[in-house]
Amino acid sequence: MALRTLVTKRTVAAGLGFRQQLRGLQTFSLPDLPYDYGALEPAISGDIMQLHHQKHHQTYITNYNKALEQLDDAISKGDANTVAKLHSALKFNGGGHINHSIFWKNLAPVREGGGEPPKGSLGWAIDTNFGSVEALVKKMNAEGAALQGSGWVWLGVDKELKRLVIETTANQDPLVSKGANLVPLLGIDVWEHAYYLQYKNVRPDYLKNIWKVINWKYANDVYEKECP
Amino acid sequence: MSWCCCNSVCTSSSRQLLATSDLSSIPSRVSNVGLQQKRSLHGVPKVFAYYGLKTPPYKLDALEPYMSQKMLEVHWGEHHCGYVEALNKQLEKNDMLYGCTMDELIKVTYNNGNPLPEFGVAAQVWNHDFFWESMKPGGGDMPKLGLLQLIEKDFGSFTNFKEKFIEAALTLFGSGWIWLVLNREEKRLAIIKTSNAVNPLVWNDIPLIGLDLWEHAYYLDYKNDKANYVNVFMNHLVSWDAALGRMARAQAFVNLGEPKIPVA
Q1: 3-class SS at A135?
Q2: How far is residue B192's CA from residue B168's CA, in Å, rounded to a whole number?
Q3: Do A149 and B79 touch (CB under 8 A)?
Q4: How far apart are CA B54 and CA B1, in angstroms?
Q5: Contact B9/B45 with Cβ under 8 angstroms?
């Protein structure tokens, strides 16, 4: 299980941020946002975007790098105990980095197409799988609101079965932890830090408003790559 | 003030009719306080006892500047209140759970690790009651008397305990709680991390202190600075008096050994 997680992280890492070489170990750094912090207002406030990006995401990256260094050290020493102990820190912080990197790409300011309904093959697939975009949104919002504690709600595609799925994951578990063939198209962060300063405990309002800045173009691109 | 509606003696203090003097500080959204009557098919009133929102044992601005009034208004008035309302709504639909004390409700709905839907809200109602009572204005400092001795026995020193507690808080992933409990079987103190709504009652342990580590518990005041929040809790908020009281009560259930009788 630990080995599979490691392999997943290494291959997924190919699309994430810059990588630095440190004793042959690839570490990570914070990817830039493709828009200003305030560009997603009023759906998501600039304060939240700044904290979320500069503090939360950065912390995941810092702790992930630390865990990777400790892992590298333990592997080279053959310290199986430490490798096993680092498992949860790697999954949590690595997952946090993966998930948030996808999240920033899932959002776009309105003037750059945020909120525009999906065109192309993804739009067609949504109509087939769920009936309509509205139905999909309603289902995802229901699942997101019902999630207890912290986690994510995802729209993903099963690349084997060529089918769209809605899934939730707990804490920072990446979508792949729900199925090795699942590729995330859209993820919505429902950790309280993602909305608390603006929406307090009214998670349903956050979920309703975030669709105004969802970047369907990105989701469509990923979908077309997996299901040409 | 406590009120029993079932035949067995109610040991949980979470079931309370609100004292009338507290009514002024209740947010207007609280409903279903205390007793409700419904008419059954035959016109005979069916009585359902529901849970009410218990007020913290201090005014909402009493924990400033460590926990702001705004924080308490939202955390208690919206989150905790929301849990109570949700619990009442769920209990309406489920006759089987009617008549349990809060402690029983939590154990039954936990269902040995496969929780029923009512577990999340029931446990969070209990957890928050416990949390408000685990803090007090002018809190922090050190425990005294028997509790301090027990901490020194089980952790080496109070400083060591504090370090371990803070470390546990900072290594909890996701939402959850940190507890200082008396482990009933091993008859010793322990620091426990739980996820989401789980609390030590489900393992039959006796909690002495609880710290809410869901982000909503500190975000308005501390944003993402969890370390600051946890340190402030230990240094300025935690009520060792409450813990001592809970410890004293726990000794009625757990034999911690013979009392030392001085010789001559």
Answers
A1: helix
A2: 8
A3: no
A4: 11
A5: no
Which residues, 6+ apart, have CB-to-CB distance to B248 below 8 Å? Answer: B146
Tell me if chain A has a CB within 8 Å of the CB of B189: no
> Which residue in chain B has the smallest CA separation from A198?
B220
Instruction: Give the span between the Cα atoms of A171 and A181, in whole angstroms.
Output: 20
pTM tops 0.90, yes or no: no
Taking an 8 Å cut-off on Cβ atoms, the answer to whether A150 and B215 are in contact is: yes
Residue whose structure tokens are 């809200």: B121
Find out whether B212 and B131 touch, Cβ atoms under 8 Å.
yes
B215 contacts on A by Cβ (under 8 Å): 150, 191-193, 196
SS3 B260: coil
Residue whose C-alpha is closest to residue A209's, from A85, A47, A43: A43
| Interface touch A192/B174, C-beta < 8 Å | no
Closest-approach residue (CA) in chain B for A57: B224
Closest-CA distance, B164 to chain A, in angstroms, reads 18
> Do A136 and A126 contact (CB within 8 A), yes or no?
yes
Q: Closest chain A residue to B120 measured between Cα atoms? A: A148
Pseudo-torsion of CA B158, B251, B211, B61, nearest 10°? -100
Is the Cβ of B82 closer than 8 Å to some Cβ of chain A? yes
Contacts 24+ apart (CB under 8 A), B148-157: B150/B189, B150/B247, B150/B256, B151/B189, B153/B188, B154/B188, B154/B189, B154/B190, B155/B189
Rounded to the nearest angstrom, the minimum Cα separation between B184 and chain A is 28
Tokens 């729209």 -> residue: A155
Minimal Cβ distance to B174: which of A170, A196, A200: A170
Quick one: tokens of B242? 């409450």
Q: What is the pLDDT of residues B207-253, one digit of tens each?
A: 999 999 999 999 999 999 999 999 999 999 999 999 999 999 998 88
Span B97-152, pLDDT tens digits: 777 889 999 999 999 889 998 899 999 999 999 999 999 999 999 998 889 999 99
The residue assigned the tokens 């809190």 is B139
